[in-house]
């Protein structure tokens, strides 16, 4: 049961679904309320009136990432309460924080603090960037990379994720990504610009990622009670790997190896059916394309007008 949530714009406008998840059952709402932060008042205001506070929340990773985390976790736990028991968990980008929490490897409060700090550092320290996804193999995509330190971060674009056998993420400076779009169009390669405003999963995130090590070192990690497959290297995660502070630094800097994690879950855990949990991000389609297996995605209801405003890209 992959746990997802990679694209920030995907959380916009899910009012009719989010409110029941935080209110039913009441025990789950009380658990969420115990994870308080300085941003709690604004997040509560967003839940009450997402249209009024949409911009304030959606343009700040410090607010949006914890919201996606809580929504995805609440959805996964509700499904488990209903008897849908996962054989393994995979999380794409931010979703890996959800996966390890659902698997019992970290307490909710500590996981949420780590996610909030991740978002704050991204807001404060990561340079402006852009991302897109292209229909290329991982090997074909290498020819489109451009790493030129002489001209600054805006000239940098590199592979940022191996999503399936023919879906690769690119990330870099806005100027470099714009040039990449021109090259892809000239070569007849289908692509889609994503709503991300940072160069996620590239070395451009290093200033934002390195401080995570200090907080990760203070967290008490446990052995996961459910198999979790890493999208850093594709292998099954254990307590020792999770407890390495450098792992969470690498998680923000290195490409997302989603396809490798899918392969490992199929071969190691015997997974045949994959369910996407969290705000829709196209992961079910990626898994189905990559593995040629049955995939399912929850149907999310949107508040009025949200479909027009949501700018999430395809994968």
Automatic annotation (TrEMBL):
PANTHER family recorded: FATTY ACID SYNTHASE (PTHR43775), SI:DKEY-61P9.11 (PTHR43775:SF37)
Lineage per the UniProt record: Bacteria, Pseudomonadati, Pseudomonadota, Gammaproteobacteria, Chromatiales
Domain Malonyl-CoA:ACP transacylase (MAT): 21-300
Species of the source: Alkalilimnicola ehrlichii
InterPro entries named among the record's database cross-references: Ac_transferase_dom_sf, Acyl_transferase_dom, Acyl_Trfase/lysoPLipase, PKS_NRPS_Biosynth_Enz
Pfam families recorded: Acyl_transf_1
GO molecular function: fatty acid synthase activity
Domain of life: Bacteria
Entry protein name: Malonyl-CoA:ACP transacylase (MAT) domain-containing protein
A Gene Ontology biological process term: fatty acid biosynthetic process
